Amino acid sequence: MNFRTMMQSGPAKAMELFSRLADTSDGAVKTRERLFAELKAELELHTSLEEQHLFPILRKNAETRDLVADAIRDNKELRAKLTELDAMPKNDQAFTEQLTELQKAFRQHARDAKKELLPAVQRALSDEQVQDVTEKMEAGFAEAEQTKQDEAEERRARLRQEREEAEFMARQAELRVEQAQAAERERAAAEQRARAEARRMADVAAMPAKAVGETARLVTAASDDARRRAQAQATAMTNMFMWPWIGVMQNMAQPGQAQPARGPSGMEEVIPLGEEILEIGKRTENRGTARIHRFVVETPVEQQVTLQRERVVVERRRPVSDKVTGEILTDVTVEVVETEEVPTVGKRMRLREEVIVRTERTQRVETVRDTVRRDEVEFEQAGRKGANRQLRTVAAEH
């Protein structure tokens, strides 16, 4: 890049920003603030590089010393107007009016620099000096551009970090909700188990009372049986000694009357037989907690885009005729803006898929095996095995 091109690139970019600002509406406050910040940074950078690298050399030359004073005065006025505009509300009509005046003043400043400053620099400075100034100013522009890119990258990194922190906090909130739900389910299951255990303990506590009542009943029945058995033994002993005489006495008292049989054959014993019945209950147990965790995965993507660039091409040609068709021999300035498309990156969110989390209930049939007890009875009677077997059969049938 030569000195002339470099000195004209700054005003061209500034004029483009002026045009974009003029096209914004009063409601686009954020856009105006962003464009004005870019315009202010561009103008301040250009003037600072001129004052730092170009003006010190021009002061040493008598031909360009006066031009430096005028340029410094113009830069001072430019900074003052930029500061005034920066403090004004961007949706105010006065901002638009002041911006228009600043654009006119800057256009005139660019014309003066093109007509007076650039030719004077080329006349007063050697090629080596011009090249040195050009390289220093190019380095300044490159450094400013790198700083801008670093700030943009830092801003993107900060936004990315804030987004990741927000997503992390959202994931933590989701995990806390899931843990709370799991704890609630565990608490409900524990309460259900506690109620089942309480019912079981109540049943167990009720069993001794039943057993005590049954034992008391059995003891009472056993006492009655013992009393009846003692009476039967006493009666048997009495009958054994009195049997020969009772029959004679009865026959003597009532010769023709039949008497009912008396003795042990007329008595009856009741022995209760019990059994256990298997009862199957159900309880719910926790078999574990399933956790579904959503996290963000970054995937690098790339896409090709076609960009256009418009550059100013200046060429000379021989006219078809030498007839003058327009005004000549006057100063004419033609400004042509070079444009270049740059890629912009935007992102939007879309729903890719859904993950459904639910519980399913199934049933199964399980065979429970255990043992139950019951009472049986057997008896022995000397000399009457047939009767013993018969009574066993009767007990088995019952």
General description of the model:
The protein is mainly alpha-helical and 398 residues long. The chain has a domain at 1-125. 62% of the residues lie in helices and 1% in strands. The protein is built from six helices and two strands, in the order H-H-H-H-H-E-E-H. A two-stranded antiparallel ribbon has the order 1-2. Helix 1 packs antiparallel against helix 4 and helix 2 packs antiparallel against helix 3 (65-87). The longest helix has 127 residues, at 127-253. The chain starts with a helix and ends with a helix.
Structural class: mainly alpha
Figure out the total of helices: 6
Strand element count: 2
End-to-end Cα distance, whole Å, is 121 Å
Secondary-structure element string: HHHHHEEH
Uncertain spans, ≥5 residues at pLDDT below 50?
258-264, 387-398
Largest sheet: 2 strands, antiparallel
Q: Indicate the multimeric state.
A: single chain
User: What overall form do the CA principal axes indicate?
Assistant: rod-shaped
Helix content: 55-70%
Strand order of the largest sheet: 1-2
Radius of gyration: 58 Å
Q: What's the pLDDT, averaged over the residues?
A: 78
Q: Strand percentage, roughly?
A: under 5%
Entry keywords:
398 residues, 6 helices
